[in-house]
Specification:
Elements (H helix, E strand, L loop, with lengths): L3 E2 L2 E2 L1 E5 L3 E8 L3 E8 L4 E5 L4 H10 L5 E7 L4 H4 L2 H7 L4 E4 L9 E2 L5 E4 L2 E7 L8 E6 L7 E5 L2 E2 L2 E2 L7 H12 L6 E4 L4 H11 L4 H15 L7 E2 H7 L1 H4 L3 H16 L2 H12 L11 H6 L4
Parallel strand pairs: 6-7, 7-8, 8-9, 13-16
Antiparallel strand pairs: 1-2, 3-4, 4-5, 5-6, 10-11, 11-12, 12-13, 14-15, 16-17
Helix pairs in contact: 4-9, 5-6
The chain binds zinc ion.
C-alpha cells in the first residue's frame, strides 16, 4: 500500500525472500525503518521517533509480526526522542544504542557486536563524528545475503552528517569503512536531504553529467513524495563527494563549504523555521536543545 503520511509515501523494499524494509517518513525530513523477518515474523525498528506511526503500520501488517527490538543510531531527539513512548506501547521491547545519553535505551552495544532480528544478523558498526556514540547497523539475511546499512546521520545519500562531536579524520574513516562493504549494500540514512546534497555535489563538480542525471532523478522522486532512499555503496562511490574525498583535510573543507551552502537555501530555511516553531512537540526534549534550536540536527 502506498499512502502518504508526512513528507513521503511509505515505501517497501524487498531484501531477498526473507526480509523487507519499510521506509517510514517522520517529522519534517527524518526516516524511521521497520525491518521485517518474513520467515520468523519478527520486526525491529530503527530510530522510531514517532512510535505511534510505527504501531499503526505494524497493526495493519498482514504478517502479524512481533516488534521485539529497536536500534538507535544516536541520541539526538529526532532519532531517539520516541523511545520512552515506544516502551509504553511495547513493554519489554529491547532498545539498543551505542551512547548512554540515549533516551530510554535498555542495552548499550559496542562496535562489531552481533545481534539478531529473528534469523537476520545485525552487526553494530561504531561511526563516531556526528556524535561520539553514533552507531550504524549492518543487517543481512541469515547467510549474509541482501545487505542493508542503516547509517543514521553518518552518511547520507550524496552527503554526510555535521561534525558535532568528532573530527574530519573520523568521518573519513567512516567513509573508508563504507567502501569496504559489498557494493550492492543498500544504504538507508536518517534524513531525506538528497536533492540539496546533489545540488551541492554538482556545484562542486559542474559539468558532471552523471551527477546532473542523478539530481534530476532525485527531484522527480521528491516531486512525487517518493523517498530517494535506499541507495547503494556502489552509487555512493559515484555520487557522494564525501565518500570520494581523498583525505580528511579535503573532507573537512568540503563539509565547511556544505555548511555554508545550506544556510542560504530557501528550502532549508523554511524547514528550519517550521522545526523551531514545533519545539513544543511531544517528541521534543530539552536535551535536544542544540539540535532543536537550530532546527537542523543533521
Ligand atoms: Zn543527528
Amino acid at each position: 500500500m502506498m499512502y502518504k503520511h508526512g513528507h513521503s509515501v511509505l515505501k517497501i523494499v524487498d531484501h531477498s525472500k526473507y526480509f523487507e524494509v519499510k521506509i517510514v517518513p517522520a517529522l519534517l525530513d527524518n526516516y524511521m525503518y521497520i525491518i521485517v523477518d518474513k520467515y520468523k515474523k519478527e520486526a525491529a525498528v530503527i530510530d522510531p521517533v514517532e512510535p505511534e506511526r510505527i504501531k499503526d503500520i505494524l497493526d495493519d501488517e498482514e504478517l502479524q509480526c512481533t516488534l521485539k527490538s529497536a536500534f538507535i543510531t544516536h541520541h539526538h531527539w529526532d532519532h531517539a526522542g520516541g523511545n520512552t513512548k515506544l516502551l509504553t506501547l511495547y513493554p519489554g521491547i529491547e532498545i539498543y544504542a551505542g551512547d548512554d545519553r540515549t533516551e530510554g535505551y535498555t542495552k548499550l552495544v559496542k562496535n562489531n557486536q552481533v545481534l539478531k532480528i529473528g534469523n537476520l544478523t545485525v552487526c553494530c558498526m561504531s561511526s563516531p563524528c556526528h556524535t561520539s556514540g553514533h552507531m550504524s547497523y549492518y543487517v543481512t539475511g541469515n547467510h549474509g545475503e541482501s545487505p542493508a546499512l542503516f547509517s543514521g546521520d553518518s552518511i547520507f545519500l550524496s552527503g554526510c552528517g555535521k561534525f558535532f562531536e568528532g573530527s574530519a579524520a573520523q568521518m573519513f574513516d567512516n567513509m573508508q569503512t563504507l567502501t569496504t562493504l559489498p557494493k550492492p549494500t543498500r544504504i538507508y540514512c536518517g534524513h531525506e536531504l538528497t536533492v540539496m546534497n546533489l545540488k551541492f555535489a554538482y556545484k562542486e563538480d559542474p559539468g558532471n553529467l552523471d551527477l546532473a542525471d542523478r539530481l534530476e532523478w532525485a527531484k522527480k522522486c521528491r516531486t512525487n513524495a517518493v523517498p530517494t532512499v535506499p541507495s547503494t555503496v556502489e552509487e555512493e562511490m559515484r555520487f557522494n563527494p564525501f565518500v570520494t574525498a581523498i583525505n580528511a583535510t579535503v573532507l573537512d573543507e568540503l563539509r565547511q563549504r556544505r555548511n555554508r551552502f545550506r544556510s542560504h537555501k530557501k528550502n532549508r530555511d523554511s524547514i528550519t523555521s517550521l522545526t523551531s516553531s514545533a519545539s513544543t512537540s511531544p517528541v521534543d526534549r530539552s536535551g535536544a536543545a542544540s539540535a532543536a534550536s537550530s532546527g537542523i540536527s543533521c
